[in-house]
Write a structure and sequence with these properties.
Number of domains: 1
Function: Removes the formyl group from the N-terminal Met of newly synthesized proteins. Requires at least a dipeptide for an efficient rate of reaction. N-terminal L-methionine is a prerequisite for activity but the enzyme has broad specificity at other positions.
Strand order of the largest sheet: 1-2-3-6-7
Strand content: 25-35%
GO biological process, one term: translation
Distance between the termini: 20 Å
CATH topology: Peptide Deformylase
Enzyme class: hydrolase
Order of helices and strands: HEEEEEEEHE
EC number: 3.5.1.88
Helix content: 10-25%
Radius of gyration: 15 Å
Number of helices: 2
Largest sheet: 5 strands, antiparallel
Shape: globular
Structural class: alpha+beta
Number of strands: 8
Catalytic activity: N-terminal N-formyl-L-methionyl-[peptide] + H2O = N-terminal L-methionyl-[peptide] + formate
CATH superfamily: Peptide deformylase
């Protein structure tokens, strides 16, 4: 198990745009270790997802995966997935508001509205191309994590600064993204 340090808001690396992963990198020991380290770090921090820039690696790589949250069992399950070089296209103008949190903005959350139906194209760790329509909570998770690849944090998308604060000071009505 190798847990890496998660960068926090204010670190300039979190605001940089990540480079695409080249297919030749996929089979290297370093890339495979990076993926393992990201899953170890995400699980250790009890996150839903983790983007490579959050551990200081400016590559278009995201890992996600969590068991359902106790309070919201069906809507909060996110299957384990490795997402490389994602491209997200919103498929609706309809948005869902979710109380998002982030491992890079610890102890806080805010209300963010995002499209609840997207099309995501990506490559997996074996180089296979994927193209999928994704809805609901998973669509929100993927958008949140993939934003990191473009130097964007959820705090940049708050519905209102009045709907942002420390976890122990806010009431919410849904699962919190990490």
């Amino acid at each position: 198990m190798s847990v890496r340090k998660i960068l926090k808001i204010g670190d300039p690396i979190l605001r940089k745009v990540s480079e695409p992963v080249h297919p030749d990198e996929l089979q290297t020991k370093e890339f495979k270790k990076l993926i393992r380290d990201m899953f170890d770090t995400m699980r250790f921090a009890e996150g839903v997802g983790l983007a490579a820039p959050q551990i200081g690696v400016l590559k278009q790589l995201v890992v996600v995966g969590t068991d359902p949250k106790e309070d919201f069992p069906e809507e909060s399950k996110v299957p384990e997935k490795i997402i490389i070089n994602p491209v997200i296209t919103p498929l609706t103008d309809k948005v869902d508001g979710n109380w998002e949190g982030c491992l890079s903005v610890p102890g806080m959350r805010g209300l963010v509205e995002r499209p609840n139906k997207i099309r995501m194209k990506w490559m997996d760790e074996k180089g296979n191309e994927h193209d999928q329509i994704i809805e609901g909570y998973q669509a929100v998770v993927y958008q949140h994590e993939c934003d990191h690849l473009h130097g964007v944090l959820y705090v940049d998308k708050l519905k209102s600064t009045k709907l942002f604060g420390f976890n122990d000071s806010l009431e919410h009505s849904g699962p919190i993204l990490d």
